[in-house]
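Sample A.
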Amino acid sequence: MGGVRVVPVGECACLVEVGDAVAAASLAAWARASGLVAEEIVPAATTVLFDGCDPAAVEAALPPMDRESLSDSGPSVRLQVTYDGPDLERVADHWGCSTDEVVERHTATDFTSLFCGFAPGFAYLGGLPAHLTVPRLESPRPRVEPGSVALADRWCGIYPTASPGGWLVIGTTEATLWDARRESPALLAPGTRVRFEVAP
């Protein structure tokens, strides 16, 4: 497979290096659906970790990469947001539009959870076009409240718990992002399609 490299990690794991987060999430979704034998399949920004597997078997089974294969593969979640974040004006200035237009663009975007990291339940949501890239704060806040909906680079994310953070917060949601009592603790597991809407 062109552009893909399989790196064995010991005898029972391997790391598959791909081009970007979309390709990583797509490969992970395919592997889970195909029944590929592995104890864990963990996508990241440009890799997928296959743990508890035969690295040679993984390499032999890899399919041609399809960047669009995630478009309808996962469950769909709609999240209500109160757009009152402290950085809403900053994003509007960066995009050269009004705060209402920021809300319109955000709610019109089809997001997909590509991988999770940083904190349990924190999903990196891809979908923003390149021209809507935003910078991080120069100095991270010591505390970002749970449920904060934020942007950084081309990512959208929601803070599942209070933590330091440097992303631009544009709103809040009351959704529970992580609950260990659920069968799938992460609400926005990789492959989940996400749409935001204005809270009533």
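Sample B.
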Amino acid sequence: MDITAKRRSRRDWIVDTCLFLSAAGLALLTSGERLLITMPQPAWLFGLDHIIAALGCASLWVRRRWPVELALVLIALSTFSEFVAGAMLMALFTVAVHRPPRVSLLVFALSLVAGVVFVIVRPEPGVPALFMWLFGTTIQSAVTGWGLFIRHRRELVLSLRDRAARAEVEAHLRAEQAQLRTREAIAREMHDVLGHRLSLLSVHAGALQYRPDAPAEDIARAAKVIRESAHQALQDLREVIGVLRAPVGELPQPTFADVQQLVAESGQAGMRVDLHDETGGAVPDGVGRTTYRIVQEALTNARRHAAGADVLVSVTGSPAEGLTVEVANGERDAPPGHDGTRPGQGLAGLAERVALAGGRLDHGPTASGGWRLTAWLPWPHDDHAE
């Protein structure tokens, strides 16, 4: 702990003043007692003691800069000066507070040795030397122990502060990760929703482009579908962006019952789609929402890459077997890439969605030149709603 890196605060001034006054008061008290009992011999030692005590007390003002050095000097002086004992005790306290326990205990041991030297050099008439040494040892032990306690308490407070700061940083990182996951979920949702709507727009716009001589009724019908699909795409976009504002769980989500409407919309757009629903029971909301996204992505890809092909959507399952979703389309009868779209990351995102639901996803070409996408989802028995 660096005690010289910062300027002395008001609290530091108060503490230093109190320690100085305590050391000076103890020196004066000892001097008064010495006048009432036996004066030291030779007589000049009494005056020298006062000078040493004054210098020792004054040196406490630099105890923060050189705590160990000052303590060693005062310990050496305490081997023959009794009035410097107060300043020496304050130096022991400073070392215990500001230096590691190993250093503090070493300095404390030297002070005990100095006590032995003092009782030998300046024995007190009528008082056993062992008693005097034990008395001084008790006081020195109490002061050093108090300083070690304060140091430990300060380290504990700093440790708690550091732990709180780390916890705050970790909480901030967790919040950022949660935001990132939310953004990824929003991006996936926007791909699923808008990809379906925009593919409908692309189909009808492509039909108008390749058949500019179509009857006026067909053109009007296609324009109506384009307008309605564009309006619905805007509505879907508003709902998806609403995730950023609405609390979790408040945004309306598709369910298994909406799969039939999804297939109907694709049929209105000119696709030949058949739906076979052979589910044995009410499909849970979570599984139904994933099923909807699977069918939505599969129909979107079929419109993009196999325009004009027949599409079969099959949903089978039960609580005991799980739910199987299969979307298969035949060989396309329109030119590849007629709508100008390029393959995206829809299947990768769909595989991640299915994996998060605990299911499996398989897809690939068929022997007849078409494409099949198959997914299996677990059917929780207690998952009635999310």
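B remarks: DSSP finds ten helices and five strands in the chain. Strands lie at 272-279, 310-318, 322-329, 360-365, 371-377.
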